[in-house]
Design a protein that fits this description.
The protein contains eight helices and ten strands. By secondary structure, it is of the alpha+beta class. The protein folds into two domains: 97 residues, Phosphorylase Kinase, domain 1 (2-Layer Sandwich), CATH 3.30.200.20; 186 residues, Orthogonal Bundle (Transferase(Phosphotransferase), domain 1). The chain is globular, with a radius of gyration of 21 Å.
Length: 301
Amino acid sequence: MASAKSKILPLGTWIGQYKIIARIGKGTNSNVYSASIVDGNHQKIRALKVATTGSATEKLKKEYEILQKLPDSNYLPVIYGYVPLKKDKHRVDGGAICMKLYESKNLSIKIQNTTGKMLGPIHGSMYAAEMLYCLQTCHNAGIVHCDLKPSNFVAPRHKCWEHQISVVDFGESQMIETAGNHFVGTSRYGSIDDHDPNKKYGPIDDIWSFFFIWLHMAACATTWIGRFVGHHKYRSKMFDAKSKFVEGIATNASIHPQFRQCAAILKKGLTKRIYDEVRDCIYEYATDHYTKARPRFVRYI
């Protein structure tokens, strides 16, 4: 099988009306490029997601079908269409998903570039609140993402507010009604039930993944992420570590009360108010740290 490297499209390659500028992202079976298109007297820049293997082509088509079911929202990717491709030495038969171009630095890169590899209680929580809106929008449309991780959250190039982000990469997504019961996401952030073949994947699993991301961004409390390198090899150990963490979180005095409260909410399962209750925990946590960090001013008369 040809390697993903051999499937990189050269600079200047034309895909329909789109001209490749550069590769800006890569996955296991796909590459993402920035590409230009002339619209009237204006040149516009888009993102193209292209499959690198024949088997990934069908997956890309299914992803596009999922994306078409999503509503228009600032929290979801903007899709412009599906561009057919013909096989040549650089690509397989199939197509490319054309979508809005976002900032080159996803949330994972932002985390890695910060001191301590975390965003801190306030910024981490503000991004977490935005993530939850992304999830709620997906779930209301009948879709579970199934592969939540910081690298799948990106900011628009022109933000409407400081912590604005959108969730992308719906390659593993499923419809809630027909979702399977097998693990498809990223082990380090996967739900505590992902390893159980008898449990159907649902919105609550997405929310558990979100919870672990929030812990990591705001407090760096996810000790298993740094401990197990090579998550495919140590997948079972990661699940065990996460399960033990969740089991003992209620009595863990080193964990902030709002994290413990959020875990207790998730343990009850999916409810109508779960998004509001979790969001309250986020804001209470951020407010608590903002109050402690706020400078004290002395008024002189």
